[in-house]
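User
New here, explain this?
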Amino acid sequence: MSRLFVWSVAVLVMVAAVVGRAEDPVLVNITGPLAAKVGERVAFEVELVNRSGRPLTGLRVVDYFDAGFHHEASTSPIEQKGTIDLAAGTTRRLTLDFLLDEPGRQCHRVEILDQAHKYMGGATECVQVAAAVAAAPAPVVAPPTVVAPAPAVAPPVPATPAPIVVPPLVASSTTPLLPSTQLGSAALELDLVAPTEAMSGAVAECIATVRNAGAVASPPTTLEFTWDPMFSPLEASDGYKLGTGQVSWTLPAVEPGGQLRRQINLRAQAPSTSFRESPASRSCVRGVLSGLPGGVMVADEACLMVRSVTPRPRTPREAGLRLSLADLDDPVQIGGATSLVCTVTNNGTAPSGRLDLVIVLPDQSRIVGDPSPSRVRIDGANVGFDSISSLPPGGHATFEVSYRVPVAGSARATAIVTGAELDGSLESTCTTLFAAP
């Protein structure tokens, strides 16, 4: 399997290229763009993961980069100021910025060293840099000139069969879709393998193996991956060409008995309308081997069942939440104040998720003293408290605010609770009598 490289799928969407030996104590993931132009500034996010099972201290971060990269601090290599400590199982993220000076494939490598200069982990990332001129896109049209002659081969071969259409296979299949396409004495097989199930947000590794089961070398061919919209591409084997919803490689000739492998890593995403309790949704990846004499194609398909990790929104009653609002003084003479005590309780069997509380005070009311907790947002008569991160089953949280009104009469306050995982809101009211002297 060749080294993996990362591309940017859309604006502000970047994904990580994972390169590293399984035995390295520190896993290094680099996130960065695939393509850019001379004169542009590019940023790479470096994630360090301590997978050694023990604390690591005094780690040094050193970056080696090609001449096409320019860093304001120094020429290659550069070392981050200071060192990094990582507890077992923790991560740390850094950002490296470069200015692109030269066209071509420009690479940089991040290496992690300990205080004894021992190698702890590393990764390499590359960017295809185009010249900042109108002629830069010219290489894009090169691939068709390689494939175009293929149809011209067809006329001299009277027995060439028409294109074959065959049904797809499931992801777990190890049998090629077109088991043995005979090309003279060459026979190419395509086998596409992927996980049969993935959780939403997980990475699915899809690997295509091209084998030559014939007696002579096969001609150069083109391998293309396409995928359903619920996938987003992360990494691919070196030498890829990226398009919209597809990636391809130009494969060299395969000797008899030989094989080639190409890989695409995709992030699976369940539909926004599905939840943990919903049935898994089916998404597929397809591989096609083309550019063969006579227009013959070899294809295979792998499908995954993607399960959502999003909990279904619950009503406050289903979540077991209770809300109470009570005054400590009632009635109150004009000029005096009363204190409202609001309690949110989780009587359910699962954590509540994040909750937001707002207490709406009566018109013309004035807050007296500091609310508790004191971090609040006041918007007119609305007093919004900092969010409750989550209430465990059986847990509760209490809030208090004091107020007074300038006129006699009944004053009504309302407490409202909403939540990120709640369908609807929960309300409680309290009426206090303010009496004239």
